[in-house]
Structure formats: structure tokens, C-alpha cells
Amino acid sequence: MPDFLLLALFGGLGVAAITGPLGAFVVWRRMAYFGDTLAHSALMGVALGFLFSINLNLAVMVCCVLLSILLVALQKQHWVATDTLLGIMAHSALSIGLVAVSLLDHIRIDLMEYLFGDLLAIAPTDLLWVYGGGSVVLILLWRLWNPLLAITINEELARVEGIPVTRVRLLLMLMIAIVIAVAMKLVGILLITSLLIIPAAAARKLSTTPEQMACIASVLGMLSVTGGIWASWTFDTPAGPSVVVTSLLVFLILYTLPARRSSS
Fold first, then answer.
1. DSSP for 222-260?
2. What is the pLDDT of residues 63-76, one digit of tens each?
3. Phi and psi (nearest 5°) for 234?
4. CA-to-CA dists, residue 157 to 86, 116, 154, 216, angstroms
5. Domain ranges of the chain
6. pTM of the entire structure?
7. Of 30, 48, 66, 229, whose CB is crowded by the most CB atoms within 10 A?
8. Is 1.10.3470.10 the CATH number for 3-190?
């Protein structure tokens, strides 16, 4: 197997391991649109990274975190409905990012690489970001698993039990921001949310507990990454979109299978 395929496979499997359990919370808390908003803001981070000559992953992470804090602050003002606010911020952030990138006339930027990813062109340094950032996310998830479940079930009850709901919610947003930053080059800004949602949604069909759903989502994500890379290599298709299409096929197969009948 060529070296670049091995790098793509290791990078994709690392991202899938993170997006599985984190995507479960995105599905449970119905945060898909929020994930899109953060992902769209990543292009602003790319522009800032090139403008100030700083690491793009770090710039994207900072931009996503700042947007998360701004979103929480605006939600408390109750100016508009949350879905309206997310729609405004998502498309505005993407448009500002596109305009900012176009103004960097002294730098040539391949927008397609950032919008749709380039899984087959990742470097060893990208793997360091994936596994380093992934380790941070998985450790945070392990430490915050019970509080996250509590605020997902009932935020008011969790607050009564002494759980710092606002802090836990911000940490969840921080974890999503880290995942978007490390996975941006692999599947792209416009497709990263699909890796959070589709495997987790498919895993719901096979699981009976939250822990099962998180683990199965990671396995299905890894299966999608492997199948997508194989399809990209075999049929000469874009790697990132091929991974998402494979994930969709897994989802459709699982949801079209007849439900198992319980034995009497």
C-alpha cells in the first residue's frame, strides 16, 4: 500500500474514533445545525491563519471557540430564535471567510481543499494534530460523560443537582471546535458535520445504551473511512466526499434492514 494511502487511512481512522462518541451528543442534543455553524466559521480561521502566519489548525480552533462563546452570549439575549441565529451566523461566517480569503491576493489558496478536504494529501504533521487533538477530546469526554448525559436528558434537573450546565455546554462546544480544526483538511469544512451525524445516527439502530451508541458510532465511522478511501483509490473519486457517501450507504443499509423480533 502506498505511503499516502496509509497516512490517509490512519488520519481518517483517528478522526472517526473522535467523531463517534462526540457525534452521539450532537445527535442527542440536536446540535447538527450548530456543528454546521462552527464548521462554516473555520474558513475565517483559515484566512486569519494565513494573514497572521500562524498554524491553520490553531487559528481555526480559536475562531470556532470564539464563535461558540459569541453564540452562547447571543442566545441569552433572546433577540431571535436559536435556529434563526444559527442560520445567520453560519452563512455570514462562511461568506466573511470567503471574502477574507479572496483579499489575500499575495497568497494562493486552494479553496476546494478546505471546503471539501483532501484526505489523500495529509502529512505526518496532520496526524500529530489528529491524534493529539483527538486524545484531548476523548479525555474530556471520559471525564464529562455523566455530566454531559445529565444535561442532555434534563438541563434543569442537572442544574438542581449541582452540575455547572453552562460550563459543561461550553466544553462540549470546545470539543466540537477541536474536532472541526483537526478534521478540516481530511473531509473539508462543508462535510465535517456529516462525520459527526451520520455514523451516530446509524449507530442508534444497533445500540441500547449511550455507551454502546458511542462505541458503535466510532466503528461505523472507521468502516466508512476505510470504504471511502478504497472507493477513492478504485474509482478515482474525491476522498472526503467518498467517505461521506460510504457513511450514507451504511446508514441506509442499517435502516432498511428489518427490525429484530424479540424472542418470546
1. HHHHHHHHHHHHHHT--HHHHHHHHHHHHHHHHHHSPPP
2. 888 888 888 788 77
3. -80, -45
4. 26, 41, 5, 28
5. 3-190
6. 0.89
7. 229
8. yes
